[in-house]
């Protein structure tokens, strides 16, 4: 036999050995299988025999090669048969994943009446049947196997909370000792009140029995049982209580020991009016110390010679012992009263003063609080005033003057001078020169004010104010309602004045750090023939914010006649202004005055409309939404609406370095109105950017006094030269003059055109008889030098002899 034949025989023998080993492993795995293990073992034995034959054949390999091959084939088939048998056995048995083993069951004698299960760790566990509930012959669980917790149980509880906290099951009963009846749990959970059903006992029929009263906790006088009606009959009747012996029935007699009725006994007691009288402390034991700690001082304690003195003594007593003052009911005074320092005054009445002078109804003290009530001035007096005080509060006080007219001297409802760190809250006032007057004050908060029908004094050219602020620092005015009366009275809702007398004097001290917010100024009742002043009027002032203000029928004014007005932010307001007379009407106007100017201010994001007052008979001219004046001021994001014949923006003379940006004008239809801006006098360095309007930008001929006007839209002009003379197409009024030379033309631009704009200039050809190519050769100041070349020959053209034309475009 050849070497290759020998190799084949060896290979077959090896295959037979592998098959035998595989069959042996399958047989080992099936040792525990009850029905298939023997079959697998037989297959494995056959495979082993075939393997042995194959091995033996190796010694006689030359003569038995074919026999060895057949034996190997039979061994492989036997192994496959054994594998199939093993798979069938395993598929019909309980299995665990590869790598896991299950422990053995107990012996036959020990596993009788056992149930196989698995422990918590997954191992095999056999438990006796006695550990499980067994149904009886009726298919029910025997009572002996049911734990006591599954049966209905009664509980006794003293509250709903205890009942809802029970570990109860359906059918359990909760006896409520606080109610006298029970509840049954109808559905889980026990913590839900609606799951408990109230149980009622039929006791109504028993109440009429001799023990019926006892069933509801009522016994007769001796403690014995009785019917309910008998017990009711034994009670004291209303007639007995009102009899002469009524008080005795309830254990009371007169102070002298006599029998009296219950009502007489009550009448004999001390009432509250006696307790709060001057001798009230003597009516109760140790009463003086008790009353001192708990009762208010009232003027009636001291009313022996008149209310004026009584209130003065009441205030003095409070200053001495620290007790709160209570002013109840109406009081009439003839002189001003001084509130004690550090005391609280409660007023739920009306205090009327006939003081006729520059004196208040009440002088405010340091750290005083006055709350509520009404103060009425029948003479020329303020309602409340302070001088040099601090830390006080006025809250919920109403003030009214029946004296002030246009011909009297002024008086403010709440007037404060040289005072600091105080607040005025929720006050109302009418009929005074003004609601609140602040002079030389510091750190003041005014909130929640309602001022109406304030009086103007023509001889003084003053008055009619809501809040007057002069020479004051750090002031907050919020939540103000100011309304002008139909009689024409009423001027500034908020007046930022200057010191030095009524209306201020030139160069006087202005205010610093002011916030005005959340204000409504109502001029809708202003007569059609009377022009209202500024709803907000600002004189000399540094750093102010005016926001969330609505002005109905007036304007915002800043007049620099007393000094510069700087760093004012006028933002997010609504202004509806009207023209009443032939005088101009404005929405927001910041004005120069002499050498004083508004400077560094911003007017932004306002809605401003100016129209004609109904019934005034005026035309629609001279209505200006915004007046631009001063220096370094910005007007950004404002929306304006004025009649077709009026201008959204008026730029005053001497205005310089001002910006108009992001404005929206929604006035007339395109081509129906006058221009967007009109300039008055000489102005310089004005920028207009990002605005939108249907109007022309500028009034024709109105740019002569303007120097350096910056815009962000393209402007064009055209120059035509013929016979040595220049003509223009110049709607934007850009060109001032043109010099025509033999080699070029020199175009000089108007003063309102900036050098920066000329830096963007582009020149293009304009069709003429001789087509030319223009070239800017020199940009110098506000002039452009332009040379022209023939499009046909390329040679330079002499403008003095050859007709030519160019278009100039500025993009800035």
Characterization of the model:
- Helix 1 runs parallel beside helix 3 (61-91).
- The longest helix has 31 residues, at 61-91.
- The chain is of the alpha/beta class.
- The protein is flat.
- Helix content is 18%, strand content 35%.
- The strands form seven sheets. It has a 24-stranded parallel beta sheet that branches.
- Strand 22 and strand 23 (462-463) form a beta hairpin.
Q: How many extended strands?
A: 53
Q: What structural category arises from helix and sheet content?
A: alpha/beta
Coarse morphology: flat
Give the helix tally: 14
Characteristic key phrases:
812 residues, alpha/beta, 13-stranded parallel beta sheet, 18% helix, disordered N terminus
Quick take:
The protein is of the alpha/beta class and 812 residues long. The chain contains 14 helices and 53 strands.
Write the layout of secondary structure elements.
Blueprint lengths: L2 H27 L7 H21 L3 H31 L22 E5 L5 E5 L25 E4 L2 H5 L8 E4 L4 E5 L10 E4 L4 H4 L4 H4 L12 H6 L4 H4 L4 H4 L12 H6 L4 H4 L11 H8 L12 H15 L3 E3 L3 E3 L3 E2 L5 E4 L2 E4 L5 E5 L5 E3 L2 E4 L3 E7 L5 E3 L2 E4 L10 E6 L2 E11 L3 E6 L2 E11 L3 E2 L4 E2 L1 E6 L2 E11 L10 E4 L13 E12 L13 E3 L2 E12 L3 E4 L5 E7 L2 E6 L5 E7 L6 E2 L2 E3 L2 E6 L10 E6 L5 E3 L2 E3 L7 E3 L4 E6 L2 E2 L11 E3 L3 E7 L16 E6 L3 E8 L2 E5 L5 E6 L4 E5 L5 H5 L2 E4 L6 E9 L2 E8 L13 E7 L2
Parallel strand pairs: 3-4, 7-10, 8-11, 9-12, 10-13, 11-14, 12-15, 13-16, 14-17, 15-18, 16-19, 17-19, 18-20, 19-21, 20-24, 21-25, 24-26, 25-27, 26-28, 27-29, 28-30, 29-31, 29-32, 30-33, 31-34, 31-35, 32-36, 33-37, 35-38, 36-39, 37-40, 38-41, 39-42, 40-43, 41-44, 44-45
Antiparallel strand pairs: 1-2, 4-5, 5-6, 22-23, 46-47, 46-53, 48-49, 49-52, 50-53, 51-52
Helix pairs in contact: 1-2, 1-3, 2-3
């Amino acid at each position: 036999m050849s070497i290759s034949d020998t190799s084949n025989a060896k290979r077959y023998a090896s295959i037979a050995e592998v098959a035998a080993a595989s069959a042996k492993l399958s047989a080992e795995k099936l040792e525990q299988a009850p029905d298939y293990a023997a079959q697998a073992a037989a297959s494995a034995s056959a495979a082993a025999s075939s393997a042995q034959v194959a091995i033996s054949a190796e010694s006689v390999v030359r003569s038995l090669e074919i026999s060895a091959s057949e034996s190997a084939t039979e061994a492989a088939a036997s192994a496959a048969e054994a594998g199939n048998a093993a798979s069938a056995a395993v598929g019909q048995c309980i299995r665990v994943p590869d790598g896991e083993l299950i422990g053995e069951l107990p012996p036959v004698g020990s596993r009788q009446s056992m149930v196989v299960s698995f422990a918590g760790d997954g191992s095999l566990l056999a438990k006796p049947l006695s550990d499980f509930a067994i149904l009886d012959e009726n298919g029910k669980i025997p009572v002996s196997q049911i734990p006591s917790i599954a049966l209905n149980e009664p509980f006794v509880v003293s509250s709903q909370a205890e009942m809802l906290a029970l570990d109860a099951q359906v059918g359990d009963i909760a006896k409520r000792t606080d109610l006298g009846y029970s509840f049954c749990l109808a559905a889980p959970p026990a913590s839900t009140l609606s799951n408990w059903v109230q149980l009622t006992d039929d006791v109504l029929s028993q109440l009429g029995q001799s023990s019926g009263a006892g069933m509801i906790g009522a016994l007769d006088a001796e403690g014995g049982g009785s019917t309910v009606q008998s017990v009711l009959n034994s009670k004291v009747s209303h007639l007995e209580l009102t009899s002469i012996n009524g008080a005795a029935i309830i254990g009371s007699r007169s102070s002298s020991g006599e029998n009296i009725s219950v009502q007489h006994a009550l009448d004999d007691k001390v009432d509250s009016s006696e307790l709060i009288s001057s001798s009230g402390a003597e009516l109760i034991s140790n009463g003086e110390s008790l009353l001192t700690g708990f009762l208010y001082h009232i003027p009636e304690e001291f009313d022996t010679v008149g209310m004026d003195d009584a209130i003065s003594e009441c205030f003095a007593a409070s200053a001495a012992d620290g007790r709160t003052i209570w002013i109840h009911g109406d009081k009439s005074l003839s002189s001003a009263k001084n509130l004690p320092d550090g005391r609280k005054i409660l007023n739920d009445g009306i205090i009327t003063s006939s003081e006729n002078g520059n004196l208040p109804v009440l002088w405010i003290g340091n750290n005083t609080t006055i709350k509520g009530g009404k103060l009425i001035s029948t003479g020329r007096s303020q309602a409340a005033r302070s001088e040099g005080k601090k830390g006080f509060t006025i809250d919920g006080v109403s003030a009214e003057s029946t004296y002030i007219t246009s011909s009297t001297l002024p008086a403010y409802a709440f007037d404060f001078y040289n005072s600091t760190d105080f607040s005025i809250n929720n006050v109302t006032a009418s009929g005074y020169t003004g609601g609140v007057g602040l002079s030389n004050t510091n750190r003041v908060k005014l909130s929640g004010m309602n001022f109406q029908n304030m009086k103007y004094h023509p001889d003084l050219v003053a008055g009619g104010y809501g809040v007057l602020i002069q020479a004051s620092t750090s002031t907050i005015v919020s939540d103000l309602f100011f309304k002008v009366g139909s009689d024409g009275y009423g001027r500034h809702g908020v007046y930022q004045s200057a010191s030095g007398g009524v209306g201020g004097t030139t160069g006087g001290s202005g205010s610093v750090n002011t916030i005005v917010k959340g204000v409504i100024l109502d001029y809708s009742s202003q007569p059609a023939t009377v022009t209202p002043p500024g709803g907000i009027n600002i004189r000399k002032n540094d750093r102010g914010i005016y926001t969330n203000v609505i002005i109905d029928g007036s304007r915002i004014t800043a007049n620099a006649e007393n000094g510069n007005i700087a760093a004012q932010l006028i933002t997010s307001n609504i202004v509806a202004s009207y023209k009443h007379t032939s005088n101009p009407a404005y929405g927001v106007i910041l004005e120069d005055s002499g050498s004083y100017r508004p400077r560094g201010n911003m007017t932004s994001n306002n809605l401003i409309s100016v129209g004609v007052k109904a019934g005034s008979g005026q035309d629609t001219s001279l209505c200006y939404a915004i007046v631009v004046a001063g220096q370094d001021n910005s007007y950004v994001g404002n929306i304006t609406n004025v009649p077709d014949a009026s201008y959204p923006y008026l730029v005053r003379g001497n205005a310089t370095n001002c910006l108009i940006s992001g404005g929206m004008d929604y006035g007339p239809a395109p081509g129906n109105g006058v221009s967007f801006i009109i300039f008055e006098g000489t102005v310089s360095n004005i920028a207009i950017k990002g605005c939108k309007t249907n109007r022309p930008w500028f009034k024709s001929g109105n740019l002569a006094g303007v120097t350096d006007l910056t815009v962000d839209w393209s402007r064009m002009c055209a120059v035509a030269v013929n016979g040595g003379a220049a003509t223009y197409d110049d709607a934007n009024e850009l060109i001032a003059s043109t010099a025509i030379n033999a080699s070029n033309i020199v175009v000089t631009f108007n003063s309102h055109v900036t050098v920066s704009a000329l830096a963007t200039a582009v020149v293009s050809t304009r069709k003429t008889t001789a087509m030319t190519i223009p070239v800017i050769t020199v940009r110098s100041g506000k002039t452009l030098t332009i040379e022209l070349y023939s499009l046909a020959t390329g040679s330079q053209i002499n403008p003095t002899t050859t007709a030519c034309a160019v278009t100039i475009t500025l993009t800035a």
